[in-house]
């Protein structure tokens, strides 16, 4: 695994605008960065990332099955009791999932270590499935990369096929796509997924989360007063549970992407449960609930993570007793009210002074591609740069 500096395409910004990549630069800072790329061998991809991704995913599903049958665990996951039936029914009905992303620390030579599971509202799918592939094709066409250069990336093909499979379970339904207003990244992500659904011959509509209404029969509706019966929402389940309409969830004849049972996988409490159920697994880091700190070896440094959090917010480093170390890398944010978990500190690898995180994507339970984010800070966050990759 190498970080290889390279020249940027002279027209890449204009090309990005042409293809609708509106968030390549955010708040005056570069988000998409093609001044370098990461190079992998086929063995590093297949053995170091692809195989562990599918293995850990199956372990995560085993955790879901354990948690939905245990009220004490549902409480530990800070899921409101009013939503337990919704989640259990969703799992027992086999409600299908579209995609998810596992985040790993991996340097190409050791064993990939799981940081977390982004299973409900993962972003950077457009950059992964489409835009970095365009970059690869351009680089090969201009002979800046050899003809045999490849990429671990079947994201778009798998997304379209998965939409076809799920549509077969929901014939004649219109698929609504939704995200919040005033965020170009979320809107671009949802637009890409909607384009993939259209490629699967699905009838689609878009509505902002803020514009969704409720009719007199407690059905969700769009701005045309069309009842929503199938929806992809880039909006976390924990937010929905707390919103004013949370109390009526489950009363509608509606199919959700992602399904309600994903509220367990996208929850940081997943990490100590994985460690309990699969102790000493080589791809897992020791992880603990707050009431288990007495089990932590005295010399082990920890990372304190909120049960619910997004984009690396409210992450801090502590000693084995959970006492803050006061690291300059600690991140702020609005999360933590529901509690925290603790995971063994395992630093991201650094390449040319950049801390590098690998996101491994799953479509229909299959490893489908990777995204790479890097940052000068030890904790990657929403503005961490995205770099392409190749297999050579």
From TrEMBL:
Pfam families: GSP_synth. Signal peptide: none annotated. It comes from the Bacteria. Coiled coil: none annotated. The keyword Magnesium applies. The keyword Lipoprotein does not apply. Keywords: ATP-binding, Ligase, Magnesium, Metal-binding, Nucleotide-binding. InterPro entries: GSPS_pre-ATP-grasp-like_dom, PreATP-grasp_dom_sf. Residues 12-391 form the Glutathionylspermidine synthase pre-ATP-grasp-like domain. This is Glutathionylspermidine synthase family protein. The lineage of its organism: Bacteria, Pseudomonadati, Pseudomonadota, Gammaproteobacteria, Alteromonadales.
């Amino acid at each position: 695994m190498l970080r290889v500096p390279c020249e940027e395409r002279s027209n890449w910004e204009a090309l990005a605008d042409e293809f609708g990549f509106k968030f390549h630069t955010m708040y005056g800072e570069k988000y998409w960065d093609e001044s370098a790329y990461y190079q992998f061998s086929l063995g590093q991809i297949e053995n170091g990332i692809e195989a562990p991704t599918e293995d850990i995913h199956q372990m995560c599903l085993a955790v879901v099955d354990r948690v939905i049958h245990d009220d004490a665990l549902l409480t530990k996951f800070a899921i409101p009791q009013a939503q337990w039936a919704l989640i259990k029914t969703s799992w027992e009905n086999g409600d299908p999932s579209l995609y998810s992303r596992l985040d790993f620390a991996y340097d190409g030579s050791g064993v990939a270590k799981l940081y977390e599971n982004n299973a409900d509202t993962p972003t950077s799918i457009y950059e992964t499935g489409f835009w970095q592939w365009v970059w690869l094709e351009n680089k090969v066409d201009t002979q800046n990369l050899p003809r045999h250069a490849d990429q671990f990336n079947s994201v778009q093909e798998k997304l379209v096929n998965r939409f076809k499979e799920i549509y077969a379970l929901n014939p004649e339904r219109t698929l609504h796509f939704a995200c919040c207003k005033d965020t170009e990244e979320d809107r671009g992500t949802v637009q890409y997924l909607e384009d993939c659904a259209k490629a699967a011959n699905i009838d689609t509509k878009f509505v902002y989360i803020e514009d969704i209404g409720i009719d007199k029969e407690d059905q969700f509706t769009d701005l045309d007063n069309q009842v929503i019966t199938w929806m992809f929402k880039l909006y976390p389940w924990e937010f929905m549970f707390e919103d004013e309409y949370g109390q009526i969830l489950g009363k509608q004849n509606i199919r959700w992407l992602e399904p309600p049972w994903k509220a367990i996988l996208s929850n940081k409490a997943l990490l100590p449960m994985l460690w309990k159920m699969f102790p000493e697994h080589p791809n897992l880091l020791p992880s603990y609930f707050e009431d288990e700190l007495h089990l932590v070896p005295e010399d082990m440094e920890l990372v304190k993570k909120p049960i619910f959090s997004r984009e690396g917010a409210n992450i801090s480093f502590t000693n084995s007793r959970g006492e803050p170390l006061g690291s300059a890398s600690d991140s702020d944010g609005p999360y933590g009210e529901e509690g925290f978990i603790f995971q063994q500190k395992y630093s991201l690898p650094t390449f040319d002074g950049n801390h590098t995180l690998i996101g491994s994507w799953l479509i229909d339970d299959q490893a489908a591609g990777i995204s790479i984010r890097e940052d000068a800070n030890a904790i990657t966050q929403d503005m961490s740069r995205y770099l392409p990759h190749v297999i050579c």
